[in-house]
């Protein structure tokens, strides 16, 4: 297993190198001038020339790439053209917010999607199944943007049940940053009021972000479970006199878990990087907004940084999913 | 337990309860008073990249810097023609053999750090901008023509600035009102210097100014919290803290304003603004800007707008009133010359009323009776006044179609749009311009002088007379003569220039009805210390 993990890690490095090359070439193929984007509409030509010189933009593309890779190997992702901050620092500031949102969204998706899928499979063709399938259809088809505005208007503005945009109330003081995850940091600071505030702020965006995933999980769980339930060993289990609950819990769910796990892995990866709209509407200071602003302002080093972290997140999640396969199905070996 | 002991215990329980209730009440009351003394502004502040007044060149950065730092002189409120004292209690301009000399006398002021503001701080602040080559440093080096050698301090409260003949002292004073002239506590900045950066890295998210507020904390992309500066001479009577809360979407700002979470909303769309105007719980303000939304017509040889008559035809064909009334819902003003309303030199004359027949005549005279087809470059986002650029483009397209010009809309992200424009490759473009400093020259030179390599150059419009006029007017110190020169220049541009001015937008700002003292001027400055909350 250790060899397997090491091999996968080596492969991951190769993949990430490919990502840097691809992202570098694509971002430099655009017919736009990053200096003009950074210095603004009114900037004079001499200012632009000076900016290019200072940021090494006037060097040949290959040289720029070599310099970039050299820095990267030393753990330096370069400096943002727009903010002139170190990219590593920027990512450290923005990534935890997205990670926290995504983790809670995936948790919601699991809490909603799995039971609904199981119920739908057990009551195939009957009203609970119909309801679950309607949810799956709606959840999959509703645009995040619309759902977010709707949720905000209803639960925040009209009913006042949940707080508005942002990670914390305007009057709450953020806890000292250790992990960047406000839920964890507030616990470390032993500040239950801030923890509660942060949790309430997480509800709406996480539900909105998780809705699509919950719908997809419902569908996947239902179909995986239906397939398993038609297998011979389930009939055998039933004929042995096991209660339906035991059959489901002991034999069916475990076997239906593999396809669900695969979907969950890719969902988590895509949520982590695809939270742009949710983050924009809920004014969530995460990587989504950072990526958009960076892309719009042709901030190549920042775009590269985001791409790399997205690639890394995907690779790590994939590895974890593959490792989890072994847990659910001992027949899968890693040798 | 004796009766006495029991009653003592009861008393203890009661007094503890009372204390708890009192403290709860107090904390509720203090939370209430925190709300009363905190001003929350929700808006799109994503352009904020630094709090350093010498580096910041963006709208949000200037807004914050204006409250953290003081400049020597300032324009107060909406009067952007009269210079007022700020850190300088007085100043004099005297002619010298090589140009002129401005002598500033400093008032007694203190930084938030407690140190007094001295002439050494002023000189440090200005020279660091020049040395750092910040985005705004060209204002000091190229426009004001000053160098580190131009500045001297005969004593701790006097600053002397020598400027050459090529710079107009009035313009120099005007641009010193911008945050590029913000005065930093030099001792504090030097203490945080890293590798000769003049404290720039530290000043990015810390403050060391004498303004009415100081920076408490900036959580990137979440919020900026400013606290009152106890040492400031500009006192805030009721607001103790100002929070700029990042909210990109207009819809989200509306929702937060309605729920009372924010006091001021910064970015409303015209439709949302119209609704807010009818809401008694809100105040909807149309605040001034110096921005101009315009059509740029490439007039270089071989380009579709080479013939001045075609450019004039376009100006006659554009229906400005329709644009302002229906698309902008009144969030714009009609003007037709290159200097925005509110600056000395602006010309209220309507040079080209909407007249399709006249426009067709001009097209015919130019030999283009059958019209032509042209690429029309437009930004993908929202245009000034909050209207989607594609709606504006569609309206212009329809207006131009009436005189036979087929404008093929090409939407591009701003970075690409301006790259094309800068390369003189935009045949027809919808764009905005905002002057760097509140003076007619902020528009006069870039829009008229081809040699300045700015807008006139981007539109391939090389008119020697206009360039000469702009240069003369820039350095003219006699106000009456200067106005006459700008009148001549604006008339020339209105007739022959490569622009069709579309409108001068207002910036909509919506507040809770209980907010008073709020004013945003055309420079984008808001004096937070003047605001109070009910």
TrEMBL record, chain A:
The keyword Transport applies. The chain crosses the membrane at residues 9-30, 101-123, 135-155, 198-217, 256-282, 302-328. Coiled coil: none annotated. InterPro entries: BPD_transp_1_N, MetI-like, MetI-like_sf. Residues 95-325 form the ABC transmembrane type-1 domain. CDD domains: TM_PBP2 (cd06261). Keywords: Cell membrane, Membrane, Transmembrane, Transmembrane helix, Transport. It is a multi-pass membrane protein. It is found in: Cell membrane. Belongs to the binding-protein-dependent transport system permease family. This is Peptide ABC transporter permease. It comes from Deinococcus aerolatus.
Automatic annotation (TrEMBL), chain B:
This is ABC transporter substrate-binding protein. Residues 83-447 form the Solute-binding protein family domain. It holds the Pfam family SBP_bac_5. The keyword Signal applies. It comes from the Bacteria. It comes from Deinococcus aerolatus. Keywords: Signal. Residues 1-31 form the signal peptide. Gene3D superfamilies: Dipeptide-binding Protein, Domain 1 (3.90.76.10), Dipeptide-binding Protein, Domain 3 (3.10.105.10), Periplasmic binding protein-like II (3.40.190.10).
């Amino acid at each position: 297993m250790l060899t397997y993990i090491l091999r996968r890690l080596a492969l991951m490095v190769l993949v990430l190198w490919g990502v840097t090359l691809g992202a570098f070439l694509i971002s430099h193929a655009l017919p736009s001038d990053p200096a003009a984007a950074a210095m603004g509409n009114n900037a004079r030509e001499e200012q632009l020339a000076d900016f290019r010189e200072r940021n090494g933009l006037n060097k040949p593309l290959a040289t720029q790439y070599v310099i970039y890779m050299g820095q990267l190997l030393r753990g330096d992702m370069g400096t943002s053209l727009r903010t002139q901050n170190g990219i590593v620092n920027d990512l450290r500031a923005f990534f935890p917010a997205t990670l926290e949102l995504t983790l809670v969204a995936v948790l919601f998706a699991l809490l909603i999607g799995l039971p609904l899928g199981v119920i739908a499979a057990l009551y195939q063709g009957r009203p609970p199944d119909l309801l679950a399938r309607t949810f799956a259809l709606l959840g999959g088809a509703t645009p995040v943007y619309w759902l977010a505005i709707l949720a905000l208007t209803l639960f925040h503005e009209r009913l006042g049940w949940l707080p508005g945009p942002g990670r914390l109330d305007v009057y709450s003081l953020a806890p000292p940053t250790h992990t960047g995850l406000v839920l964890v940091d507030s616990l470390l600071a032993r500040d239950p009021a801030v923890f509660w505030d942060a949790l309430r702020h997480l509800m709406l965006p996480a539900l909105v972000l998780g809705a699509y995933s919950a719908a997809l999980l419902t569908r996947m769980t239902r179909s995986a479970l239906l397939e398993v339930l038609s297998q011979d060993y389930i009939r055998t289990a039933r004929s042995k006199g096991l209660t339906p609950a035991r059959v489901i819990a002991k034999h069916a769910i475990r076997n239906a878990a593999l396809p669900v796990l695969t979907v969950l892995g890719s969902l988590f990866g895509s949520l982590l990087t695809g939270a742009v709209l949710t983050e924009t509407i809920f004014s969530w200071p995460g990587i989504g907004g950072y990526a958009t602003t960076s892309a719009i302002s042709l901030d190549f080093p920042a775009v590269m940084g985001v791409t790399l972290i997205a690639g890394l997140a995907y690779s790590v999640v994939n590895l974890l999913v593959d490792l989890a396969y072994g847990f659910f199905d001992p027949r899968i070996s890693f040798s | 337990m004796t009766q006495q002991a029991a009653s003592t215990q009861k008393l203890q329980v009661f007094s503890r309860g009372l204390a708890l209730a009192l403290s709860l009440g107090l904390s509720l009351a203090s939370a209430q008073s925190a709300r009363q003394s905190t001003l929350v502004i929700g808006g799109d502040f994503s352009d904020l990249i630094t709090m350093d007044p010498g580096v910041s060149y963006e709208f949000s950065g200037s807004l914050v810097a204006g409250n953290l730092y003081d400049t020597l002189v300032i324009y107060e409120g909406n009067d952007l023609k009269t210079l007022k004292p700020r850190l300088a209690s007085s100043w004099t301009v005297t002619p010298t053999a090589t140009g002129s000399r401005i002598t500033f006398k400093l008032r007694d002021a203190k930084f938030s750090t407690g140190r007094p503001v001295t002439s050494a701080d002023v000189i440090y602040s200005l020279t660091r901008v020049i040395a750092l080559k910040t985005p705004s440093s060209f204002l000091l080096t190229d426009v004001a023509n000053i160098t580190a050698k131009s500045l001297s301090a005969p004593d701790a409260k006097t600053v002397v600035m020598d400027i050459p003949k090529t710079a107009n002292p009035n313009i120099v004073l005007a641009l010193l009102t911008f945050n590029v002239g913000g005065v930093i506590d030099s001792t504090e900045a030097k203490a945080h210097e890293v590798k000769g950066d003049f404290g720039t890295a530290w000043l990015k998210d810390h403050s060391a100014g004498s303004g009415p507020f100081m920076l408490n904390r900036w959580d990137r992309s979440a919020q900026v919290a400013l606290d009152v500066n106890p040492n400031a001479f500009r006192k805030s009577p009721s607001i103790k803290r100002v929070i700029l809360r990042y909210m990109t979407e207009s819809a989200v700002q509306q929702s937060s304003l309605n729920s009372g979470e924010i006091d001021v909303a910064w970015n409303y769309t015209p439709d949302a603004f119209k609704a807010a105007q009818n809401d008694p719980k809100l105040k909807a303000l149309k605040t001034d800007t110096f921005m101009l939304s315009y059509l740029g017509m490439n007039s270089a040889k071989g380009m579709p707008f080479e013939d001045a008559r075609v450019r004039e035809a376009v100006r006659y064909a554009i229906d400005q009133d329709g644009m302002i009334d229906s698309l902008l819902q009144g969030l714009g003003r009609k003007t037709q010359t290159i200097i925005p309303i509110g600056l000395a030199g602006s010309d209220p004359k309507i040079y080209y009323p909407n007249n399709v027949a006249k426009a067709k005549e001009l097209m015919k005279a130019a030999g283009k009776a059958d019209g032509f087809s042209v690429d029309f470059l437009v930004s993908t986002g929202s245009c000034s006044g909050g209207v989607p650029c594609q709606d504006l483009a569609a309206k212009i397209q329809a207006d131009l179609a009436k005189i036979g010009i087929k404008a093929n809309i090409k939407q591009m992200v701003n970075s690409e749009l301006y790259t094309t424009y800068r390369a003189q490759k935009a045949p027809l473009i919808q764009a905005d311009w905002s002057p760097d400093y509140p003076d007619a020259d902020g528009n006069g030179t870039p829009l008229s002088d081809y040699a300045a390599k700015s807008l006139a150059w981007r539109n391939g419009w090389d008119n020697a007379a206009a360039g000469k006029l702009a240069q003369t007017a820039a350095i003219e110190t006699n106000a009456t003569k200067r106005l006459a020169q700008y009148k001549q220049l604006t008339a020339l541009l209105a007739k022959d220039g490569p622009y069709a001015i579309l409108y001068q937008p207002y910036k909509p700002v919506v507040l809770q009805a209980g907010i008073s003292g709020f004013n945003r001027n055309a420079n984008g400055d808001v004096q937070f210390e003047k605001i109070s909350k009910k």
